[in-house]
Amino acid sequence: MITDPLDAEDPRPDSDEPLSREELPDFESALDILIDPGADLQPGLINALSDPASHQVDRFREVWPTVAPDRRLWIARRLHEAAEASFHVSFDRLFSLLLDDTDGRIRALAVEGLWENTSPKLIPRFVALLRDDLDEDVRSGAAAALGDFIYRG
User: Fold this and answer.
1) Which residues 6+ apart lie within 8 Å of 43 measured at CB?
2) In which band, very low, low, confident or very high, does the pLDDT at 52 lie, cut at 50, 70 and 90?
3) What pLDDT score does 17 carry?
4) Are 52 and 27 within 8 A, CB to CB?
5) CA 64 to CA 78: how far, in whole Å?
6) How far does the chain reach from its first CA to its final CA, in angstroms?
7) How sure is the predictor about 41, in pLDDT bands with cuts at 50, 70 and 90?
8) What predicted TM-score, i.e. pTM, was given to this entire model?
9) CA dihedral (94, 127, 138, 89) positive or negative
10) CA torsion sign, 94 to 51 to 73 to 64?
11) Phi-psi label, residue 13: left if phi above 0, alpha if psi -120 to 50, beta otherwise
């Protein structure tokens, strides 16, 4: 289990009920809220980033480097938690982008977040992470992910 030192500062409204699908904002609005460190966050807001279209992935790629490092880690952890909690969401396209983050903790979360993805396109990325990444957790996760590919045949 990944512990989150930012949980104590997690700005949540009084209700812990997650937003329903109808209440979720669109991808761009949710991203704007999530990257704003002063925003009032509602449980389940991260789900609005699920299954993004190509133009939405481009927007994420564009704004991600401008987000403060602690906030990027916080968002990556929420993506990871949401992906583990529900098979109704998919953040694979975002996790693929996060494999290139400057923070090893975020890269490690991205590798873990892609654990169900069986695309052979990931193999060269995982090999490169295993061979070249400076972060031990990233290399370990990449090795485990590659092991899954070998196991599946």
Assistant:
1) 12, 15, 16, 17, 18, 19
2) very high
3) 56
4) yes
5) 15
6) 28
7) confident
8) 0.84
9) positive
10) positive
11) beta
Tokens 């109704």 belong to which residue?
88
Structure tokens at 130: 């295993």
Q: Is 48 helix (H, G, I), strand (E, B) or coil?
A: helix
* pLDDT at res. 37: 87
DSSP string computed for 14-42: S--PPPPTTTPPPHHHHHHHHH-TTS---
CA distances 93 to 55, 63, 98, 128, Å, are: 12, 15, 9, 18
Specify the amino acid at residue 65: P
The token pair at 84 is 């583990």
In this prediction, residues 34-62 reach a mean pLDDT of 93
Could you tell me the two tokens for 6?
């930012």
